[in-house]
Amino acid sequence: MKLSLSVRVAESAKRKDVADLPIEALAPLAKAAGFQALSMRASVVSVTSPPARVQAVKQVLAREGLTVSMVTGDIPLAANNAQATDAIRNIGPYLDLAEALDCRLVRVMTQHESDIALVQRAADIAAKRNLTLAHMTHWGTLIETVEDALRVVHAVNRPNFGAVYEAANTMACTPNFDPEAVRQLVPHLVNVMFQNVHKDPASPIGFRSNRLGQVGLRYVPLADRSVLDAAAMVGTLREAGYDGWLTVHQPLRDGQTVPTAITEAAAVFGPFIRP
Fold it and tell me: Which domains does the chain have, with CATH numbers?
């Protein structure tokens, strides 16, 4: 597996549009910690960023020897609001951003059954540019669970459309969470992302799942194995033959700084992928 760090590490749990540390400072820290790539989000660069900004970010990454594992091209995709499906309606700018950053994986979102046809069309456009569309397991979308992901991947039926398994979202949207179920997704996985949470109805951080209604979450240390076991997940994926990106996707916890969050992510996940 290849180790990637989401630039969400510089975002708070409640803000997806602002980074606490600029990419010029974040990238060297990620490289020094052993990460091979950054998963790019709109808090750093987006489809509305001026070309000069996109090129400046690319130069920062090139200087550090980092690649981009996946592009999330706008804030709505990260926030999953009413505009989150804009990307599949007009995929061109998202593909342009990915190509400008030398990335082959572009995140998209679905919310309604009618979005399947839009994803098919977007995937066909992306295929002409040798790019792949990626849909994360995420609350409030057509893909909340492993079962959902399998259904949607088969419905879209495009070789350049795949699933992103995000353990916390999947757990939070699944009544009877089975971590071993990820094995079924391995043939269709284009990325794996990890953040660590506990369900907590009293938490101010929450969302509305299609399956479970309102769900509250509390972020916990990545090494906390009481609910989500990162080591077990990586072991299962490796046994099932997954050899793609493994992306740490955790936002800042209360009181954390970006450097300490990066150190924590590297300490937990670095040993899993090193020979």
Answer: 2-273 (3.20.20.150)
